[in-house]
Amino acid sequence: MLSKTQPFPKQYTLLSNNVSTQQSTVFIGLVISGILDIPKLENAHRELVRLWPALGGELVISKTPYEFTSGDIVNFNSRHLSLKRAELPLVTTTQTSSNSKPTVYRMAEENDKLFHFDTMEKFPPPDTIFALRVTVLLDATLLGFRLTHHLCDGEACFDVVKAYSDLINGRRVPELVPPPDIESYLSEQVHGEDCLPPTVSPDNSAWIEKNLSVGVVAILMYTYVLVVRLIMVRLGLRESDEERMIHLPGDFVAKLMEECQGEIDAAYEREKPDVKGLEVTRNNVITAWLLKSLYSKFAPSTKIGLDISISINYRPYISSPLPNTKYLHNSFYNTRTPFASIAQFQSLSTSQVALELKKTCVRNKQPSVVRSNINFLERVNAVATPHPPDRILGIRVEHEMPMFSHWTTFQYHLLDFSGALVDFDQNELQRDGRMGSGKVVYTLPSAVFPYGFKMRPLGFFVKDGMGGYWLRMRLSTKGWKGVEECIGS
Q1: What's the pLDDT tens digit per position in 261-278?
Q2: How confident is the model at residue 97, as a pLDDT?
Q3: Cα 33 from Cα 453, distance rounded (Å)
Q4: How far apart are CA 443 and CA 463, in angstroms?
């Protein structure tokens, strides 16, 4: 258990961090129903920094490995726009509630800047750990949170936003304690024994060293790959990509889940009637459906391999903080689910792909694998990059490794900012349509990578608050054709 009395350090380095994200930044955009009071929002920001001094610090990139400071910096800015929520190029769940099948919505390039209007620096990464931008509309408020990815993963980001929401509503927030790897390695804190189900065979593809290339040469090669891809797009030798939003209604996901699990159970019953089969998750099924859709238009190559990368949170396997305390940390690594070829992947059903994704997750949740993977991160003090799949001049450029980040455990749709609603006359609000609940009606996660490079396929999954899901996806033109054809749009 982490100490509650240990003072927060003024400057610190983490021993067990994920170096592949040290140049990256995470953004969360929230649309709030109603007009929020800017002074109340700024005061809550100042109070959160006072209570959680890590948020008032900076990322020190002049040191190797990177260091963090704590402090009292309040990076806050606000503005007003004479627009209503419906006039923005954003599609909220209330506009999709009547749909019974998946729907694809195009994204305007300025969507992120609506929330983060002056905080979208691409390189070098921003100095300040935490920034908040507020845009007040005529009937809603946009909150744009920016956090250094090297300190905050998806869970830490949610903890920050939730603590901010709690302060606004007068609730007590947990005490912030130092991360658990300031003085000791996390690999030494992994607990539990392996318990691999009989239906899952060991596979060393779960090891993180199979997923990353390490060192200066690796980053130069990877940068070269990205530049070659960009040039190929400009010359018309490679398909361009585009970001869009996919909305999956709850009924569609429930039906898909039932069909996939039914097929899996039937297969186990035929082949291994005495063994209980695995139960896939909604994330497994949604990811499998998406992959089957986007690769349906690709040529069935038997020579090009396909690897699927999904982030996994290893917090449950290390020491927990004391009750009523939190710490900020980047506690994830990327898993890899390999398929022999695109043709082999295309021959599988959605349920079979979902099952393979589930097996990868189960393997990566074995304590010995978690310990090994964290230990690898601890030994790597250089830049690490993903292994991309196909080669030109010895460097892989033709097909990418699809990467997915599931934010479905973070309940942004349940957050409440009503404590900061402007105290207007209620009758006046009802007459002109400004009445709001202070609740979150839309969540838009994103990440900015070094030099502004864009990866594809890349996706973030969040819940919509009505039983469905939002998928923010960057796909190639061919990938989007596959998705649209599969959903009949």
Answers
A1: 999 999 888 887 665 778
A2: 52
A3: 33
A4: 8
Angstrom distance (rounded) from CA 72 to CA 168: 19
CB-side exposure of 226: number of CA atoms within 13 Å?
17
- The CB-side HSE value for 288 (13 A sphere, CA atoms) comes to 29
Contact criterion met (CB below 8 Å) for 306 and 295: yes
352-389 pLDDT tens trace = 999 999 999 999 999 999 998 898 888 875 455 555 44
Residue with tokens 């007003």: 80
> Own/partner pairs for 393-396, CB < 8 Å, 24+ apart?
395/221, 395/224, 395/225, 395/228, 396/225
Cα 102 from Cα 253, distance rounded (Å):
9
Low-confidence ranges of the chain (pLDDT < 50): 1, 382, 388-398, 427, 431-434
Dump the DSSP string for 119-171. ----SSPPSBSEEEEEEE-SSEEEEEEEEETTT--HHHHHHHHHHHHHHHTT-
Smallest CA-to-CA distance from 144 within 136, 152, 135 is with 135
The DSSP code for 410 is: S
Q: Which amino acid is located at 9 in the chain?
A: P
Both tokens of residue 54? 């890590």
If you search the block for the tokens 């998750």, which residue do you land on?
281
Locate 176 and state its tokens: 């912030």
> 175-176 and 212-214: which strand pairing?
unpaired
